């Protein structure tokens, strides 16, 4: 696990930052829609948590795309 964290530290930091931002925005939007802070908190924790996990893998996929563009395979 330690190797994974050190290898992906920057992406994990970006993911954590995105998660915090998403929680705040989601809570405010959910409160504006429901008028209920408890419902807003529940919704803002559920949806961004799932989105954050997806975001991490999305970032990793795009990093692979960028690496392939920098080092295209030679087809013989």
Principal-axes geometry comes out as elongated
H/E element sequence: HHH
Total separate domains: 1
The unreliable regions are none
Radius of gyration: 17 Å
Based on DSSP secondary structure assignment, what is the total number of beta strands? 0
Class based on secondary structure composition and strand pairing: mainly alpha
Question: CA-to-CA gap between the ends?
Answer: 39 Å
- Give the proportion of residues in helices: over 70%
Q: What fraction strand?
A: under 5%
Average pLDDT works out at: 87
Multimeric state: single chain
Biggest sheet: strands, sense, closure? none
Total helical segments: 3
Structure description:
- The chain has helices at 2-7, 9-34, 37-70.
- With 76 residues, the chain is an all-alpha fold.
- It is elongated, with a radius of gyration of 17 Å.
- The chain is 87% helix and 0% strand.
- The chain has one domain (12-70).
- Helix 2 runs antiparallel to helix 3.
- It starts with a helix and ends in a 6-residue tail after the last helix.
Provide tags for this entry.
76 residues; mainly alpha
Could you give a quick summary of the protein structure above?
With 76 residues, this protein is mainly α. Helices cover 87% and strands 0% of the residues. It has one domain.
Topology:
Blueprint: H1 2-7, H2 9-34, H3 37-70
């Amino acid at each position: 696990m330690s190797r994974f964290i050190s290898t992906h530290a920057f992406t994990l930091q970006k993911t954590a930052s995105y998660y915090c931002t998403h929680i705040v925005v989601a809570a405010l939007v959910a409160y504006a829609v429901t008028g209920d802070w408890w419902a807003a908190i529940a919704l803002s924790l559920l949806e961004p948590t799932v989105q954050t996990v997806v975001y991490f893998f999305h970032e990793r996929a795009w990093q692979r795309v960028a690496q392939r563009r920098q080092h295209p395979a030679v087809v013989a």
